[in-house]
Amino acid sequence: MADDCLFCKIAAGDVSADTVRESEEWIAFRDINPQAPTHILVIPRQHIATLNEAGPGEAEMLGRLLLAAKEIAAEEGIAEEGYRTVLNCNPGAGQSVFHIHLHVLGGRAMGWPPG
Ligand code: 5GP
Ligand code: ZN
């Protein structure tokens, strides 16, 4: 757990969140400022600040985050219609919380390219 990391605090239960699903390795909760009717964040319990800091040892964990996103999309009823997974890396891409997180967005039409 990193000092002063909001998402480490959510993973530890020290900051409350609307959790939808969790495992020993990750936790998924609703975004506080949703950008779509369904907007869920899937985060590893392990603190990794950005994708740039992830190494080969995290490969399986990162893959399981994507599989969690798939299961969550099915539970939320957006799997067939379509949904988007996003992992912003560094401020130039819009990252504002420096503990990696996979956004799962759906429930509305999505534009491309993203802004
Ligand atoms: P980023 O911009 O880093 O890719 O995404 C961070 C996300 O975390 C944003 O969508 C933001 O709304 C969300 N967020 C920030 N603080 C909180 C919080 O305290 N609780 C929850 N549930 N989401 C948060
Ligand atoms: Zn953290």
Number of strands: 5
Integer average pLDDT: 97
List each distinct ligand once.
Answer: guanosine-5'-monophosphate, zinc ion
Helix content: 10-25%
The CATH class: Alpha Beta
> CATH homologous superfamily?
HIT-like
User: Percent of residues in beta strands?
Assistant: 15-25%
What is the domain total for the residues? 1
The structure class reads alpha+beta
- How many helices in DSSP terms? 2
Pick out the low-confidence regions: none
- SSE sequence, one letter per element: HEEEHEE
Question: Termini distance?
Answer: 32 Å
Radius of gyration: 14 Å
Q: What is the CATH topology classification name?
A: HIT family, subunit A
CATH architecture assignment: 2-Layer Sandwich
Largest sheet: 5 strands, antiparallel
Tell me, briefly, the overall form: globular
- Largest sheet, spatial ordering of strands: 1-2-3-5-4
What does this structure look like?
The structure is a single chain. With 115 residues, the chain is α+β, with helices and mostly antiparallel strands. Helix content is 22%, strand content 22%. Strand 1 (19-22) and strand 2 form a beta hairpin. It has a 5-stranded antiparallel sheet, covered by helices on one side. The protein contains 2 helices and 5 strands; from the N terminus they run H-E-E-E-H-E-E. It has a single domain (6-106), classed as HIT-like (HIT family, subunit A). The chain binds guanosine-5'-monophosphate and zinc ion. The site of zinc ion has 6 residues, from helix 1. This is Histidine triad nucleotide-binding protein. GO terms for molecular function: catalytic activity. The active site is at 101 (tele-amp-histidine intermediate).
